[in-house]
Write a structure and sequence with these properties.
Helices cover 45% and strands 12% of the residues. It has helices at 16-40, 55-64, 77-91, 109-119, 154-160, 172-175, 181-190, 194-197, 200-208; strands at residues 2-4, 49-51, 67-69, 97-100, 124-128, 135-140, 164-165. It has a 4-stranded mixed β-sheet, sandwiched between helices. Helix 1 runs antiparallel to helix 9.
Amino acid sequence: MVVPLKPLARAKSRLAPAAGDALRPPLALAFAQDTVAAALAAPEVRDVVVVTDDAVAGAALAALGARVVPDSPAAGLNAALAHGVRSVRALRPDAAVAALNADLPALRTAELRRVLIRASEFPRAFLTDAAGIGTTFLSAAPEVELRPTFGGPSRIRHIISGAEELLLELVDSVRQDVDTGDDLRAAFALGVGRHTEALSPAFAERAQS
């Protein structure tokens, strides 16, 4: 599993109006921690590779058991994902790979497992986000290129690329990424992980101010 993460100072910029600039980096890290922890708990996930140049985030995610690699391409999200896949397959050339957004604070391991098991039936497969526009998950079978085109209206690009769209029920936590205050409130309604939950009072206080 490859999880890309921007430097925290630049992450989740669209969340600033709701969370403020002081709370935004800690929230971005908490989202990533809850995402990585849930992914590592899935038996189908052999390892999680986090692609980031942020030292603080890297240390926190490594402490959870992730393998952290620097974003040496420094050429955006999809280049980071391709770099992460190369890192995985340099050690295990026959590995199936998957990309997962770092901003899934409500991610439930059981729901991710459902996605992974279904995705394994196809050469490439993806799950759209809660808005039905973007992508939160993309997988590739062994010896198949991932070919990520994340960002913006990526759902249609992944369909055009030949990836199978996974039309699954009861996987809301895998679809609920967080870019805005409304997204975060939706994630809280689903039930977030412990790292994000620890910041919920600060977010609630900010929202009421």
